[in-house]
Amino acid sequence: MTLAEQLNAFLFILLAGLLSGLAYDFYRVLRQVLRLKKTGTFVGDLLFWLFLMVAVFGILLAGNDGEVRFYVFLGLALGAGIHLIFFSQAARRMIMRVLFFLSRMTQMIIAGMLALWRIIIFPFRVLIFVITWPVLQVRHALQLAGSGIGRASGKFFGPRVRRFTSGAFTWWRRFTGRWRPPRDGQ
């Protein structure tokens, strides 16, 4: 490689270092927004470094045919350091604003879709109400009449007989509720 090609590759690697710093700021903001705990941070760090390793390897392949020399490490470190010292605060603020904007847009789109769904479903809800309201009124009237008849007939015929199934379900619940699996030491 000539000196000009090495300088060009060094500038390319320096740009890769700057982009690595930007990716790290994005991950920091994402970790802050999601409030990751210990395990989430571990998994996120692992995924971030795997992603960064693949991206830097791809940049190395494109920039200098995958040759790893001292100036590659120097360029990556220098680029990431320049980004973290000079551009990190502004980048994090910009990333936070973009994420806030995207979340608001997502909320607005979802609210619009829900409003559209309510508009579409409204005629069907009215139709269901028109059909079921009289049925419910008749059912309520029959329940009132039935409860009066049931109270009056209870004095004459005795208490009402429970259905067999409700007694069976109660017995099964009582039977299974008492059962406990045996302990290891017993």
Automatic annotation (TrEMBL):
InterPro entries noted in UniProt: YabQ (IPR019074)
Record carries keyword Transmembrane helix: yes
Alphabetical UniProt keywords: Membrane, Transmembrane, Transmembrane helix
Membrane-spanning segments: 6-27, 39-62, 68-87, 108-133
Protein name per UniProt: Spore cortex biosynthesis protein YabQ
